[in-house]
Inverse folding.
């Protein structure tokens, strides 16, 4: 039996939540406001966590979303978040040739006047003067050795300085899931570190489109 991946567990969770919301909305006496939906989804997640309906892989996500729903109410926008996750993850579920996808994304960013650097060794703290342009750097060792036969074979780190939504849009267009940005992990000043994984198998929630 194949072990469930984080992506599969996450999709199972959000699709079940959206299905529960849909069933609730179909009820003749249901109050379909953002506040009511948020309260329902929070209660549904609390029960799901208590009954361990979903894999441990998404337990932290459930706990975080419950906390946000309790503190922000409708402001947590969880129904919208679930729909965004469902759309983005479903679209890339069977994407395999991620090496080609990454190459195509880099080419498109260059054509959009991004400064894309793929021939520098990034193994210590560095600084890049990009004159205000969006920039993306991949260490030459990773770029040359971690893409084989159109596939990404090991995680690749992207150092990016740009509006995150521009990066998220470019990645989604080419069927790539990219990790959340991490400024502390970055070796390049004023850049955030992002990662792409073989088979899009991110170990945690990816960068999402707004």
């Amino acid at each position: 039996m194949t072990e469930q991946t984080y992506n599969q567990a996450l999709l199972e969770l959000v699709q079940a939540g959206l299905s529960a919301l849909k069933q609730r909305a179909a009820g003749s006496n249901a109050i379909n406001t953002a506040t009511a939906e948020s309260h329902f989804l929070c209660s549904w997640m609390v029960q799901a966590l208590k009954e361990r309906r979903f894999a441990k892989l998404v337990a932290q996500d459930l706990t975080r979303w419950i906390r946000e729903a309790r503190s922000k109410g409708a402001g947590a926008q969880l129904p919208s978040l679930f729909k965004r996750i469902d759309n983005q993850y479903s679209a890339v579920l069977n994407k395999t040739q991620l090496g080609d996808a990454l190459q195509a994304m880099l080419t498109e960013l260059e054509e959009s006047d991004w400064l894309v650097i793929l021939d520098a060794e990034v193994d210590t703290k560095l600084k890049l003067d990009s004159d205000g342009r969006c920039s993306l750097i991949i260490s030459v060792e990773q770029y040359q050795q971690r893409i084989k036969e159109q596939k990404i074979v090991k995680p690749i780190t992207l150092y990016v300085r740009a509006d995150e939504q521009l990066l998220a849009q470019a990645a989604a267009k080419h069927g790539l899931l990219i990790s959340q940005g991490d400024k502390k992990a970055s070796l390049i000043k004023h850049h955030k570190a992002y990662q792409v994984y073989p088979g899009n198998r991110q170990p945690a929630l990816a960068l999402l489109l707004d």
Q: What stands out?
A: The longest helix spans residues 6-26. The longest strand covers residues 115-120. DSSP finds seven helices and six strands in the chain. The chain has a mean pLDDT of 94.
